[in-house]
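Supplementary Methods S3. Complex input for the 1,3-dihydroxyacetonephosphate-bound model.
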Amino acid sequence: MFPDTQLEATVRDLVQPGRGILAADESIPTITRRLAKVGVESTEETRRAYRSMLLTTAGIGEYLSGVILFEETLDQCTDDGTPLVEVLTRQGIVPGIKVDKGTVPLPGAPGEKITQGLDGLAERLETYRAKGARFTKWRDVYVIGTGTPSRLAIEANAEVLARYAAAAQAAGFVPIVEPEVLLDGDHDIARCAEVTETVLHEVYHALHRHGVVLEYTLLKPNMVLPGKDHPARATPEEVADHTLRVLRRTVPAAVPSINFLSGGQTPEEATANLDAMNRRRDATVPWELSFSYARALQHPAMEIWAGRADKAAEAQAAFLHRCQLTAAARRGQYTPAMERAA
Ligand code: 13P
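Predicted complex, serialized as structure tokens:
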């Protein structure tokens, strides 16, 4: 497994200065909720039309090195019949695939979840490879509450995440490892830091147990933030301080890139926080600090589009603008004034 020229090439194509990843891999229930908010019924055709609108935006290849797709998108085409996977590769963007099957209640841990999808994974990976995917994603979730996350949830989720990552590498895919400590709750930023540190320690122990080669993985973590219902917001500098401290304590230097999720932050918050972290990059920060956003890249475009083909150009302009600003933050060159530029 090490060195491995195929995995090395995928990492090289994904981890590039000024570029990051778009997560467009919402499961059917999630995309159905998001489309409903803009008044669009979720059907295979509306999901295709929406994602085709996003992915055919001219110029996104400058800012995006990879896009994570949902299973059905691998088989879908643009209005003129070009496979969406080909639309990406033509722009120099690597297609990836979400391979987990979502979360279910974890017995013995009231209110907590475990991610499923290991059964049959090796066979599914073969079909995804034939359709052009080169990297994968699996997401675990952790809820901060009274007594949660429990040891059981932390250990069980780390174990399945590591089994997934090992299976992905064995099949020639670079795994994105996504342990998401959710934003929900009224906890303060220190509590989020404590939980994220514990979760990440467990994840890296499990990856080691399963022989996962860290050089060929990407980490997709939450930023360290106060809970959504906490009375005080944190400044980008506070978020950067807490997040980088936790990551330094837990993530080995062999990991090439950390691609944050946006996790319910507004696009402006997610961009400003990523920017603050990149402004602090120094010799104590061994990894690239990039993005793998879904909502923080897509939200303005989805609201403008709202199912109307005549709004596609305007929605694409909004999407390209968010890609530009987020890519600037990935270089530590974003300013809030850039939000107003057309
Ligand atoms: P958000 O950026 O909307 O949190 O989504 C990232 C993602 O892919 C969650 O799995």
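The chain has one domain: 5-341. The CA atoms of residues 33 and 85 lie 25 Å apart.
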